[in-house]
Design goal:
This protein is an alpha/beta fold. The protein has helices spanning 168-175, 243-257, 278-289, 303-319, and strands spanning 5-11, 42-47, 61-63, 83-88, 91-95, 101-104, 110-114, 145-152, 158-162, 193-197, 200-204, 231-237, 265-271, 295-297. The protein has two domains: 5-152, GTP1/OBG domain (Spo0b-associated Gtp-binding Protein, Chain: A, Distorted Sandwich), CATH 2.70.210.12; 158-319, P-loop containing nucleotide triphosphate hydrolases (Rossmann fold, 3-Layer(aba) Sandwich). The chain has a six-stranded mixed sheet, sandwiched between helices. Strands 3-1-8-5-6 form a five-stranded mixed sheet, with no helix packed on it. A three-stranded mixed sheet has the order 4-2-7, with no helix packed on it. The protein starts with a strand and ends with a helix. Bound molecules: guanosine-5'-triphosphate and magnesium ion.
């Protein structure tokens, strides 16, 4: 299961306490209580592994290390270690307490989300001519602590959409080294899969059905993964009796999720053309052309048509 939307509590470490201590040597009885160490910071860091949010599936509470308390002999406590949690690039980090939103877009990019607490000062710090035996020290301060939503919005260049069994996963596999599950039944793909075609990232999505925006089938939450893609590949099966209706159902669901999806450049593919007669293919392409001029017929077992798909991808890559 791809974990792509989680709520977690992230905290910096607490500051270590300052200490009250005195020199026990005869004739030199000044204060020697050391300061505590500051708490470690909690930091998120981008990595390319899209499954990295998995670590938050069961563990929802993370805290950086606390600072150590000072020693009675003038030594400061050790600083708490920072806690660096890896999240996939494309993770939108929302601080639910402050409303701050930040997106991690690059591998290695770090975002400090909760500062460690301040250290407490020991009594050595409070010495003064008027007060040579201060009994005062401070406790360390608690680290910052907030609730966050971590939401993965994959940064794919091309998103594959269509009804179940339109051939999305088959196309991804034919174009890239991906092994997205293919099956002769609806909803074979349960979660988004990515494949790389040279520099382009292609996202294979679960099938959409009419009413997906109201939760039918697998719902439409995964469409968030194509909110960032520049290009939509819309697959319609040549086996359908009404290709325009199939097309309109998907457009309706895209619109219900986010009308901006309709403004993206869309390439339509009439898939599985090997399953029907060539007259049928021509007729269905003509019908689809009335709703979108960018239509071609393909089959994953027909090399000529796969070359056309690759040419389209190469043109997209060239514009990148
Ligand atoms: N003959 C033929 N069969 C195809 C072609 N493309 C896909 N299929 C078959 O169609 C069925 C569905 O293919 P998938 O790639 O799993 O379809 P999908 O759109 O990913 O389906 P979901 O994941 O359920 O949404 C499988 O049995 C495939 O083998 C094609 O070009 N020609
Ligand atoms: Mg699939």
């Amino acid at each position: 299961m791809l974990v792509d939307d989680v709520e977690v509590r992230l905290s910096g470490g607490d500051g270590g306490h300052g200490i009250v201590g005195f020199n026990k040597t005869k004739g030199n009885t000044g204060p020697t209580g050391g300061n505590g160490g500051p708490g470690g910071d909690l930091i998120l860091e981008g990595i390319s592994d899209i499954s990295a949010l998995q670590q938050f599936r069961f563990n929802k509470v993370f805290k950086a290390e606390n600072g150590r308390q000072g020693t009675a002999r003038l030594l400061d406590g050790r600083r708490g270690e920072d806690l660096i949690l890896k999240v996939p690039t494309g993770t939108v980090v929302t601080n639910l307490d402050t409303g701050d939103v930040h997106e991690i877009t690059k591998v290695g990019e770090q975002l400090l989300v909760a500062h460690g607490g301040y250290r407490g000062r020991g009594n050595f710090h409070f010495r003064a001519a008027s007060n040579t035996t201060p009994l005062e020290s401070e406790d360390g301060k608690a680290g910052e602590s907030f609730n966050f939503r971590l939401e993965l919005k994959m940064i794919a260049d091309v998103g594959l959409v269509g009804l179940p069994s339109a051939g999305k996963s088959s196309l991804l596999n034919a174009l890239t080294g991906a092994h997205s599950k293919v099956g002769a039944y609806a909803f074979t793909t349960l979660e988004p899969h990515l494949g790389a075609y040279y520099g382009l990232i292609i996202a294979d999505l679960p099938g959409l059905i009419e009413g997906a925006s109201e939760g039918k089938g697998l719902g439409d939450k995964f469409l968030r993964h194509i909110e960032r893609t520049r290009e939509i590949f819309h697959l319609v099966s040549a086996e359908s009796d009404d290709v325009v209706r199939d097309y309109e159902i998907i457009r309706g669901e895209l619109k219900a999720f986010n009308p901006e999806l309709l403004t993206k450049h869309e390439q339509v593919f009439l898939t599985k053309m090997d399953m029907v007669t060539s007259e049928d293919v021509a007729e269905k392409v003509a019908q689809l052309k009335k709703v979108n001029k960018n239509v071609i017929a393909i089959s994953v077992i027909d090399d000529e048509s796969m070359k056309k798909v690759k040419a389209i991808l190469n043109a997209i890559a060239a514009k990148k």
